[in-house]
Amino acid sequence: MPTSPQPRRVQLDKKPPVEKKERRALLWDILKKLAVFAAPYRLLIIATLALTALGSFTAQVNAFVLRYTVDTLTEIATLAEPWEAGIRMLMIISAVLLTKEILSIFISFGQRFFGEKIRINLSRDLSQRIIERILTYRMAFYTSSENDSGKLQTRIDYGVSSLTSLVQNFFIDMLPLFANAIVALIIMFSTNFWVGMVGLVIIPIYFFISQKQAKRLQGFRRQMRGFREAKSGLVISLINSISVVKSFVRESIEAEKHLTIQKEMTDNQLRIRSIGFVYDAIKTFIEQIGVVVIILLTAYFVLQGEMTIGMILFHVMLFQNVAAPIRQLHRIYDQINNALTYAEGFFDILEDDKQVENIAGISSDNLKGHIELKNVDFTYPNGTQALIDVSFTIKPNRITALVGLSGAGKSTIINLLVKFYAPDAGTICLDGHDLADCDTHELRQRIGLVLQSNHIFSGTISENIRYGDMNASIDDIIVAAKKASIHEQIVSLTDGYESTAKSLSGGQQQRIALARMFLKDPPIVFLDEPTASLDAIASQQVKRSLDLIKKDRTVIMVSHNIAQIIDADDLVVIENGEVVETGTHEVLYAQRGKYFEIFSAMSDSLNLDKISQTLKG
């Protein structure tokens, strides 16, 4: 019995470990970049810091109250009538603690609220900035294997999340703790130098242990990033290919692929947790040693008569205030390492200047549509060479058909003409100007593109058609829909033009795209297999609309449809990325070259002889 293919183990990018100096430089670089986004909120940051400083003093009140309570009780216990003094003491400490708690509530609320406001605003700004940025990138950015939808989404989401978590942990969690530690340490030194030294000595020890912990976890965290990107890619791929999966009954295999990466993620997470538990135990042990030393040292000074008994608990509590944030240092390192792992990829996307399209340039007003390709070479980012020394001319206000077998390079030429990509060599001229020098936005405003499968956005039919001209009125939309032969079908729907566009059939969606094109009314139109996936009746209806589009425009068309090819004024025959023939249908057919071969194959596939006999009969 044949065995099922084994699920492929996910391959992760293995990056060399980053040296300590490089990581410090990288951290400083990321903080500087983050500071640019934080600059508009400087008043909020100042308010947060002020509240944090104030809160660090109120946090020490308990230690003073405890010292006062113990020392006062020691004195009261020696009195003949201790109750009156005891009640007075209890009232004092109750009033102090109650006042301190009320102040702490307001201080903590303000500090946390301002910190959270900074985090939320930064999250919004980072997310908006990167979306605005990638919208300016070339098509090559989106087609690169490094930027497939799953990886790109994970990199952006976790980049924003890690950066904002770093801000949250700093302003809301860690900053108050460190402020408390500094104030507590100052008070310890002010009461006794040697007690303060115990609190000070523990800090570098904790730093050293936490740094070792972070270094040990560094590789596991980078692996986790790879797992998350791979998992997102698998889920998106599964959704996009669900019809194929179900038609071949491969649900179990796809589930096994997902289980494999889930197991790898689980193993990785368990390793991270187990390492964290070991280091936490070590830090707790060291902290307890510090507590014992504090007790012994303070007890010695008490026996020497230099301190009161209350100083023992006073110093222990202050030491706890010093140790608490240091104990949490691994959290800081975790956030820093997450920020370095994900923010590096986030800022790589945000600052990829080489991907930015050259927008500004020569105005494309009064386009005539005279296009000339001269010795054009092009290779896709994945290394596939699509065009080799391509040269031909497209005349204005004529229909030019690009003819060739699948993969010949026809769609690639259209991608170059729309400036989705730039040629590796050679030039493309539009009305005598180098296409590279033309204003990209103006050019695309005056170019229409109809593909084999046009994207329909979530929303209503009217919203999808209006995408061709955002200022169009409903009357303009109706006129465009009529030209695209879709108006009657739209008004027959329950909600008419307010119906959901995604619910339409493939042929109807194609005509929505054509209506969008009529609304745009561009002087140059590119048609890339616009009827290839439609049935005969839908193709006929779309063809009528296409015939209207072709009038008085420069049209460049890719098609395997004989009727559309014969309608073309000029033909360009392409084979393996090279132009092999140019001319009219009659001339090229008479030459009996490559075009004759392709045209004959198309005719044979249609069984024209039998169709002709049927029509005659």
Give a written overview of the molecule.
The protein has three domains: 26-355, ABC transporter type 1, transmembrane domain (ABC transporter transmembrane region fold); 369-446 and 525-537 and 545-617, 3-Layer(aba) Sandwich (Rossmann fold), CATH 3.40.50.300; 453-521, Rossmann fold (3-Layer(aba) Sandwich), CATH 3.40.50. Helix content is 65%, strand content 9%. The protein has helices at 20-38, 42-58, 61-76, 82-134, 139-143, 149-191, 193-240, 242-247, 251-303, 310-327, 329-350, 410-417, 440-445, 461-466, 474-483, 487-491, 506-520, 536-550, 562-567, 585-591, 594-606, 608-616, and strands at residues 371-379, 385-394, 399-403, 425-430, 433-434, 447-450, 524-528, 554-558, 570-575, 578-583. A six-stranded mixed beta sheet has the order 6-7-8-3-9-10, with helices on both faces. The chain has a four-stranded antiparallel beta sheet with strand order 2-1-4-5, covered by helices on one side. A hairpin with a 5-residue loop joins strand 1 (371-379) and strand 2. Helix 3 packs antiparallel against helix 4 (82-134) and helix 7 (193-240) packs antiparallel against helix 9 (251-303). The protein is elongated and about 130 Å long.
